[in-house]
Amino acid sequence: MRIEQLTYSIGAELTDVKLADAVHDDGLFAGIREALLKHRVLFLRDQDITREQHVAFARRFGELEDHPVAGSDPEHPGLVRIYKTPEQPNDRYENAWHADATWREAPQFGAVLRCVECPPVGGDTMWANMVLAYENLPEHVKTQIADLRGRHSIEASFGAAMPIEKRLALKAQFPDAEHPVVRTHPETGEKVLFVNAFTTHFTNYHTPARVRFGQDANPGAGELLRYLISQAYIPEYQVRWRWKKNSIAIWDNRSTQHYAVMDYPPCHRKMERAGIIGDKPY
Ligand code: SIN
User: Fold this and answer.
1) Which residue's CA is the closest to the ligand 1 atom numbered 2?
2) Annotated catalytic, 33?
3) 25 is an active site residue
4) Is 197 in the pocket of ligand 1 (CB under 6 A)?
5) What's the CA gap between 41 and 23, in Å, rounded?
6) Ligand 1 within 6 A of CB of 271
7) How does residue 216 score in pLDDT terms, banded at 50, 70 and 90?
8) Which of 77, 88, 199, 279 is the most buried (most CB within 10 A)?
9) Hey, whose CA ends up nearest to atom 6 of ligand 1?
10) Is there an atom of ligand 1 within 6 Å of 82 CB?
11) CB 251 within 8 Å of CB 111
12) What is the DSSP string of the chain?
């Protein structure tokens, strides 16, 4: 297997490797896992694998989970279908910077995404290195956010376009989660800036040390949250991947965010994602 770094900050392409072999080859899988921790997102081309192989490879990292709104392949639980069709051109959930499922108590470890069909151009996906985003924050901001916690909501994101009864039922099933604004990567010990499009507000901002009068809370907290969320938008932290049929991306969801660019006219873009269950951030 050859590993070619794609930017100084994030991403590498793996060549001379068949992902199907890594289902059974422990040494090869260990090499891929090590590369994932180092580069945070890995890309491969021309992986003509079956859905069984896709699921089996992803399950080497851990158990898979379905998505409560996006449907899964009925024959392959855990394989979420992210299908855009000309009939549903406005389904735009993926074009916001996010880490997957941070509205869960235990957001995902990572994912393995395969392109089944894509537009001839456009429809790229971008990833950002949120360890670097944290490292480069001004010191006074690091101090300010050291103990802050954020609320992450499926209700306010995937639920927003639903009728109220359906939205409330979704929230009852997945109550908002609370996570540290700066999490520690459980394997590398790195600090990660952990707020994204699912984060609605800080839960412990309103303390005497931060808020002199009640009106300090909302503008101060809102501006700080927007500033932190916008760190993923910085090009120096990013890599951009152009899809072709049977291209694959594997990412560490604990230290990255991603954004699926919807710059293509109404057409088919079919992606299948095996999302791997993670652990509770600390
Ligand atoms: C996702 O947001 O997990 C999917 C990204 C994509 O469709 O490119």
Assistant:
1) 94
2) no
3) no
4) no
5) 19
6) yes
7) confident
8) 199
9) 260
10) yes
11) yes
12) -EEEE-SSSS-EEEES--HHHHTT-HHHHHHHHHHHHHHSEEEES-----HHHHHHHHTTTS-B---SSS-B-TTSTTEEEEEE-TT-TT--TTSS-B-TTTTSSS--SEEEEEEEE--SS---EEEEEHHHHHHTS-HHHHHHHTT-EEEE-STTTTTTTS-HHHHHHHHHHSPPEEEESEEE-TTT--EEE---TTEEEESS--STTT-SSHHHHHHHHHHHHHHHHGGGG-GGGEEEE---TT-EEEEETTTEEEEE---S-S--EEEEEEEEP-----
pLDDT at 148: 97
Q: What pLDDT is recorded for position 89?
A: 61
Q: Other C-beta atoms within 10 Å of 24: how many? A: 11
The reply to whether 185 belongs to the active site is: no
Please give the distance, rounded to the nearest whole angstrom, from the Cα atom of residue 244 to the centre of ligand 1: 14
